[in-house]
Amino acid sequence: MSSEKDSKILYEAFSYYDRTGMQEFLEKKASEGWRLVRKVFAGEWEFEPMEPKKLHYAVAYLPQFSNEDEFLVSENKKEYLEMCSATGWQYVCVHKNMVFFLNEEENPLPLETDPEEELDVIHKAVVKRNRIGIIIVMAMLLLTIAGIFLFKTLSGIYLLTIGSAVLLAESIDFYKYLRWRKKALAAASLGKFSRTDMPDKLISCLSLAIVLVFYAVTVVWLIISKNWDAIAKMTLFSLILSLNSYFDKLKEKTDSIRKKRLLTFALILICLVLILLYSFISVYFIEGC
Hints:
The protein is of the alpha+beta class. The protein is built from eight helices and six strands. The chain has helices at residues 19-31, 68-72, 77-85, 115-151, 157-188, 201-224, 228-252, 257-286, and strands spanning 8-11, 34-41, 44-49, 56-61, 90-95, 98-103. It has a three-stranded antiparallel sheet with strand order 1-3-2. Strands 4-6-5 form a three-stranded antiparallel sheet, sandwiched between helices. A hairpin with a 2-residue loop joins strand 2 (34-41) and strand 3 (44-49). The longest helix has 37 residues, at 115-151.
């Protein structure tokens, strides 16, 4: 087993449903002498060194689970992994509700044997993931709009702008998925599996560009209008988001439920300190401007 110092993190982002892209990326890394250890966070992958060899990877979607912990403590986990192992597929790691397997056989049996059943599972997983994300973003937008009208202030307008951009970007990505699903269903009716890495680079770039443009316009508008209170809130919000991402990465690296709870408590405590610091700055500096 390689040490943590030997391992390395690589960055490669894929759409949630793009099992083809992820599998081919992992197989290419295996041929270069890197074996998957875990999917760390978003587009981050942790690898350990090995002798270069040809490996086959597969991604299974389990929409009945919401996160890694639910899968790891599931009563059916052992039976499911033994069933996969019987056909040569070795468990590697789990990320959210995606489980990664590898197979060292030259021509392994496919992990999924029914394209229509696989499409149904992927669809349930994608819809569940998007539903949760959209509910969170919509709640943020509604609270922001309510705050603007109730408190007669535009200091929260940046949240409305960023939230709208994120919602639009997520909608575009979901539209890309629906385009692929339509073609995949036609192929599945003929008993064929479909690649998931559709050449929709333009749509992906458009999603990212929308978020960046909305964000940049908001920052410039706040600076020009000298809305220091909104700028302070925007900085606070960005810090909290960054801290949340950082602590998510730390939690991904530990299997201890106790440590995960301690990290969650530490995040909440740091966020409270930041909010108190913002309140102090707002009262003693911003209001005097």
